[in-house]
């Protein structure tokens, strides 16, 4: 994650799995690394359910994440708190990025991750529930879609 991340200095193997996912998603913006950080049976849910986003399996999550990566740059994130058990990590984080139209994106997250130890001893994410600032997210996405449509119309004119 970015230099402003307040992750523990000596993260557990389980937290390292989450940090690999976060790095692939935000810093590297690398769908291949993102896919490698999760299990084959990975399940993802954006919450609260009122934002209307469907549950996703690994393939649909990587596709969804790739579309988000394509619309953002300069993602910076801060980890505010981490709570761990043997197979579950809960993270309170916030992030900012610049959209492809130049608009500021900012959000706050509570992420609940379950990890599974692989045959090689490495941990991968097996499921994730990501609570977002639903008001901020829906307002940003509506405005960003409008900005992109306006740019497309201007380019076509």
Automatic annotation (TrEMBL):
InterPro entries assigned: NTF2-like_dom_sf, SnoaL-like, TonB_box_CS
Coiled coil spans: none
Domain (SnoaL-like) ranges: 20-116
One Pfam family hit: SnoaL_2
Transmembrane segments: none
Record's protein name: SnoaL-like domain-containing protein
């Amino acid at each position: 994650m970015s230099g402003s991340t307040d992750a523990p200095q000596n993260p557990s193997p389980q937290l390292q799995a989450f940090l690999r996912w976060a790095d692939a998603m935000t810093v590297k913006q690398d769908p291949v690394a993102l896919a490698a950080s999760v299990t084959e049976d990975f399940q993802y849910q954006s919450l609260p359910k009122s934002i209307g986003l469907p549950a996703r399996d690994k393939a649909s999550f990587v596709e969804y994440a790739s579309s988000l990566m394509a619309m953002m740059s300069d993602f910076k994130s801060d980890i505010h708190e981490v709570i761990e058990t043997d197979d579950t990590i809960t993270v309170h984080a916030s992030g900012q990025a610049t959209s492809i139209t130049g608009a500021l994106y900012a959000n706050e997250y509570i992420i609940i991750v379950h990890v599974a130890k692989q045959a090689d001893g490495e941990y991968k994410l097996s499921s994730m529930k990501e609570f977002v600032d639903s008001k901020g997210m829906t307002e940003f996405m509506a405005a960003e879609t409008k900005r992109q449509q306006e740019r497309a119309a201007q380019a076509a004119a």
